[in-house]
Amino acid sequence: MSKEIDFIKKRRSVRKFRKLPVTDEQVTRLLEAAMAAPSAVAKDPWRFIVVRRPEHLRTIAGFLPNGGFLPDADVGIIVCGDLDAAHSNSLSYLLQDCSAAIENLLLAASALDLGACWLGVHPREDRIENISKFCKLPENIIPVAVIAIGVPAIAPDPRTRYNPAYVRSEKWQ
Ligand SMILES: Cc1cc2nc3c(=O)[nH]c(=O)nc-3n(C[C@H](O)[C@H](O)[C@H](O)COP(=O)(O)O)c2cc1C
Questions:
Q1: How many angstroms does the Cα of residue 120 sit away from the middle of ligand 1?
Q2: pTM for the predicted model, two decimal places
Q3: Which helix (H) or strand (E) holds 146?
Q4: Which of 16, 119, 157 has most ligand 1 atoms within 8 Å of CB, for mutation?
Q5: CATH number of this structure's domain 9-156, picked from the four choices 3.40.109.10, 1.10.150.120, 3.40.1160.10, 3.40.50.2300
Q6: Domain limits of the chain?
Q7: Atom 21 (ligand 1): residue with closest C-alpha?
Q8: Closest residue (by CA) to atom 8 of ligand 1?
Q9: Mind listing the pLDDT tens digit for each residue in 55-71?
């Protein structure tokens, strides 16, 4: 165990929240962390929609079969990518860049003692379509995930799922 990287193991998905606010200042800190992520050729194709209205969170939750708890969160952040901005206009680069930003955001939430959970959108066509329609996304803006954020009501144990069987040396065989 290394103390220096324990903060990574502390990040766990939180799906139960207290009825307490996440401040705009905290949201800005999370977005600063997200936008500190690596990005292919520093194209920064990530775009973020901050959703606070309970009726909007309820509607979006209805699009996410595994995101029914989203309205219990104080904030939802829809992470999108701009295909026109991504390196080589590539969906793969867009998804990799957005995923790096999401992980930074989740680590920052944990560091601020907030609870957060990644709710998958991409590549599920129905979720992409519903969110795009509801949020009036232009064609070039691709929704990747929704992040539920709130004051946590639970504190899952820190952990890694380290498995030496997943690691090989030098070549596959
Ligand atoms: C691409 C992706 C999609 C996910 N979608 C959901 C989801 O829709 N609902 C949910 O509750 N958790 C979702 N998760 C969170 C995972 O379930 C969670 O990260 C995993 O069980 C490991 O647990 P941990 O985050 O506590 O380490 C998603 C995670 C990823 C990376």
A1: 7
A2: 0.98
A3: strand 141-152
A4: 119
A5: 3.40.109.10
A6: 9-156
A7: 13
A8: 119
A9: 999 999 999 999 999 99
